[in-house]
Amino acid sequence: LKTLDGTNWRPPTSVNDPALANLVVNQTVPDVSVGAAYIAPRERYYIGIGVNHITQPTLREFTRTGLTEVPRHFIGTAGYRFELSPTMALTPSVMVRSTGSQTAIDVNANLNVQPVVLGLSYRLGDALAGIVGLQASQRLFVGYSFDYTLSGLGTAVAGTHEILVSYHIPTRRRGLAPVFDPRDRKRRPS
Q1: CA 122 – CA 129 distance, rounded (Å)
Q2: What is the largest CA-CA distance in the chain?
Q3: How far, rounded to the nearest angstrom, does the alpha carbon of residue 71 sit from its chain's CA centroid?
């Protein structure tokens, strides 16, 4: 479900955007995305690829110009985990997103000092983000992130706050004990 509330649009200047419809528009459209990832044994490195909006859904009446096609988004990511000590690891990573005409590159680094995670992210020419988190248990991670806009939008946007909660649901595999956390594999006796 996609929604656009043109009645609440507040442009940074007093001039309204003539392309936006001045009404509330709701539309349900089918959308298909796919992705694949490989995580090396002991989580030493990972690589992933994905495509969002494969069907390029068309949104009607979101703008005064009529049809708006959502472009395909191609995504690639990779990272490597450096074990600095038994309780400390540094994971730099990169993520590239592209629609063909526009490309965004994020360069990231997370420092995990068990159970605390500290991270920085830089989106080239656009934003800087910081994260602090806590691995509260083998299954539960909670964190806070602040994204500060560096581009021209920074005059209208002070930044964004994000609360993260991640819970890993253990799975049972036939003949194997459940794996609660991928890092547990190296700690379990064989």
Answers
A1: 6
A2: 68
A3: 18
User: Any idea how long the chain is?
Assistant: 190
* pTM for the whole structure: 0.69
CA distances from 97 to 3, 56, 105, 137 (A): 23, 16, 7, 32
Hunting for tokens 């991640």 — which residue is that? 166
Query: CA of 118: how far to CAs of 18, 88, 144, 148, in Å?
Result: 43, 11, 10, 16
> Cα dist. 9→3, 17, 19, 105, 154 in Å?
13, 9, 12, 28, 17
Per DSSP, helices labelled H in the chain are 184-187
Sign of the CA dihedral with 27 first, then 13, 130, and 133 last: negative
Please, are residues 24 and 3 in contact by the beta-carbon 8 Å criterion? yes
Locate 118 and state its tokens: 């500290």
The one-digit pLDDT tens for each residue of the chain (190 residues) are: 556 666 666 655 555 555 555 666 667 778 899 999 998 988 799 999 999 999 888 776 655 565 677 889 999 999 999 999 999 999 999 999 999 889 999 999 999 999 999 999 999 988 999 999 999 998 999 999 999 988 766 556 678 899 999 998 887 665 554 545 544 544 444 4
First-to-last C-alpha distance (Å) of the chain: 48
* Cα torsion angle, 10, 15, 16, 17, sign: negative
